[in-house]
Write a sequence for this structure.
């Protein structure tokens, strides 16, 4: 690997814009994207812990931010990100064991993890009656 | 003019993975994933109920010995796992050696920093 730029003159392998879209490809890209999303989400979790440790005033500042419309959207996005990454992570562990590689299974499990991630998130927020999560914070 | 190496072929191959560490990265990424399969759903569900009641309820939830230990474990495993994941992302997309090294070091610093903040917060509330 050279220090600056690409010096190899041979043709490069085709990149995203050349490939026909597959659901497995979408799943793979989203796995990485949600991984990065979870990185940011982890910062929010740690921020919440720190706010709780800093006292009721700091906690209320955090809660107000998280309870705002934007905050709720971000938190729901984080829930989807976590749920999908977790489900697809389990799928990846199965792939690591050498199972589920034939195109039919791979496509099906990809669709399942995509739908499952969204379904679990909606279920968490709706069924638990948690919308909006930070409502009614006074103390 | 190449000198004949005195190292055995095994010695040359051993530890020469993409990150010069063989399969270590691959394995630790998956072992931490196994822990997170259990920890994250617990954390997610308890957290969503813990944040409903405000400051008093939140600190009461964090302060329980059982919760304090599991929160610390979840945060630690998450930060470890995401440091490994972000390392791969950086290695994949950043070609410039200097930028890459800076980001890789920054990645480690951020994760260790977050762990210090989380561990202190949990211990302060639980203590």
């Amino acid at each position: 690997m050279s220090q600056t730029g690409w010096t190899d003159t041979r043709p490069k392998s085709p990149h995203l814009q050349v490939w026909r879209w597959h659901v497995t490809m979408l799943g793979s890209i989203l796995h990485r994207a949600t991984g990065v999303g979870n990185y940011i989400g982890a910062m929010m979790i740690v921020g919440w812990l720190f706010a709780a440790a800093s006292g009721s005033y700091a906690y209320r500042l955090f809660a107000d931010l998280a309870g705002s419309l934007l905050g709720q959207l971000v938190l729901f996005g984080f829930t989807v990100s976590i749920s999908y990454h977790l489900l697809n992570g389990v799928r990846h562990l199965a792939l690591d064991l050498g199972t589920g590689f034939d195109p039919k299974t791979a496509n099906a499990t990809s669709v399942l993890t995509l739908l499952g991630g969204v379904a679990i998130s909606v279920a968490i927020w709706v069924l638990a009656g948690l919308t909006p999560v930070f409502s009614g914070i006074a103390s | 003019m190449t000198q004949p190496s005195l190292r055995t072929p095994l010695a040359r191959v051993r530890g020469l993975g993409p990150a010069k560490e063989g399969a270590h990265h691959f394995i630790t990424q998956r072992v931490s994933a196994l822990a997170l399969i259990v920890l994250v759903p617990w954390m997610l569900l308890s957290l969503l109920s813990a944040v409903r009641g405000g400051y008093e309820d939140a600190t009461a939830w964090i302060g329980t010995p059982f919760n304090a230990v599991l929160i610390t474990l979840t945060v630690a495993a998450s930060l470890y796992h995401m440091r490994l994941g972000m390392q791969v992302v950086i290695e994949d997309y950043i070609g410039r050696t200097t930028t890459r090294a800076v980001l890789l070091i920054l990645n480690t610093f951020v994760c260790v920093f977050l762990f210090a903040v989380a561990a202190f917060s949990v211990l302060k509330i639980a203590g």
About this structure: The interface with chain A takes residues 30, 33-34, 36-37, 40-41, 44-45, 47-49, 51-56, 58-59, 62, 71, 75, 78-79, 82, 85-86, 89, 95-97, 114, 117-118, 120-122, 124-125 of chain B (CB under 8 Å). Chain B has one domain: 9-126.
